[in-house]
Specification:
Distance between the termini: 30 Å
Largest sheet: none
Oligomer: single chain
Order of helices and strands: HH
Strand content: under 5%
Shape: flat
Structural class: mainly alpha
Radius of gyration: 12 Å
């Protein structure tokens, strides 16, 4: 799994997460499931990046 994503976990970075609505949870879950299902590194990075963006939006 080395090299698939870059950066830290983000667990202690920035503001704490706000409340996640059901739609956001489902969208994050879909991106993470698709990231797990693919062997293509670029596609995996795409889905992980979008899941992280959805989580970051909860901090705003």
């Amino acid at each position: 799994m080395t090299g698939h994503t870059k950066g830290g976990s983000g667990a202690s970075e920035g503001a704490p997460l706000g409340t996640l609505d059901t739609d956001s949870i489902e969208r994050i879950d879909v991106h993470l499931q698709r990231a797990l299902a693919t062997d293509d590194t670029d596609e995996k990075d795409f889905h992980v990046r979008h899941a992280r963006q959805l989580l970051e939006a909860c901090r705003e």
